[in-house]
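Q: I'm writing up a methods section and want to include an example of the input and output format. Could you take the sequence below and give the corresponding predicted structure tokens, formatted cleanly so I can copy it straight into the document?
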Amino acid sequence: MARAGTKLKHQVEFLSRKYHCVVTNPPYMGSKGMNDQLRRFIEEHYNRSKADLMTCFMQRCVDLIYDNCLFGIINLPSWLFLGSFEELRKSLLSHYYIDSLLHMGRGIFGIDFGSVAFVISKAKSNSKGSYFRLHQRNFQHIYFQHIEQLFLRAKNHPDFRYDFKEYRDEEGVSEIPLESSKNGLQLYYPADQMVFNKIPGSPIGYWASSNIIKAYDNVDLIENLADVRQGLATCNNSLFTGLAWSKVIQNWF
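A: Here is the clean output for your methods example:
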């Protein structure tokens, strides 16, 4: 018990100090997996980020560092887009600065669910952040050494493009080519994070073009013009498509 108490004391000391830089791979746990005691604590102290422990750690890192200092995290990319993290995104975009972000597919931790690594400054900035999209499909598996090669190619050559359709991990791709592909996708995106707030839900849409952003500025959203309803659905495919057509065919013969 004494040894456990000493470890807990050291952990509390780590989490109560102020740092110039914090780097962490936080635990992942959605709110559905939390017990009642943890859920109540999270809702009281980390309301903006309560959907997952990993995002609670993002909010905690802000408290751990001095002003104008940095924290770097690798976690799941769900917080970039899902509505349950909207308040967290709005707070980060309004008060802090995303210096750089690597949006990666599966492969960093082997059989994982995708990951995103990023550095955030506890300060505001008018500079554009550096964003790298190192995969094409959400669950595309790419070996970690090839993710590294893609990042270095794009970092050293911002115009580098890669055709992810050529990637075959199961066939043992040896390396990423040095030459940019004419049919490839852009990997590096310099982006002004303040434009993300112009998109409904404030997703971290770093690849959104200036024309897309202008569309949100100049055109009304459909939801502001009319109530959206589901249409063109049978609600019973077997009755109205499969069975109905089979009866028609039977009548023909």
